[in-house]
Automatic annotation (TrEMBL):
Membrane topology field: Multi-pass membrane protein
Cellular component terms per the entry's GO annotation: membrane
Protein name as catalogued: Uncharacterized protein
Key words, A-Z: ATP-binding, Magnesium, Metal-binding, Nucleotide-binding, Translocase
Principal location listed in the UniProt entry: membrane
Source organism, top-level taxon: Eukaryota
InterPro entries on file: P-type_TPase_V (IPR006544)
GO MF annotation list: ATP binding; ATPase-coupled monoatomic cation transmembrane transporter activity; metal ion binding; P-type transmembrane transporter activity
Annotated source species: Minutocellus polymorphus
Compartments reported by the entry: Membrane
Amino acid sequence: FDKTGTLTKQGLDFISAESFTDGKCCSESLPSEDLTKAMAVCHTLVKSDKEGLVGNQVDEVMFQASKAAMDCSNAKSVVITPQDGKPLRVIKRFEFDHHRM
């Protein structure tokens, strides 16, 4: 939104993520494996059979940029599989409410 409150462009674009090692930016390389995994699992998205990913648009764009896959076929757990193919099981979800911040 601009200052007048009008939407100048529909949707969000993910431009990049930069990793830091020993306090130095590694902008020439791809985001680290740890950062990519964090992007894949640090969100409040849920997957719906009818609607696909449902949740905050920022979370959705970040998750898609991680190129991970979400499996919600088991009602008791969610499994996120990053590009490296090693599945990560979500064991606890901490809900985030930006209105409380």
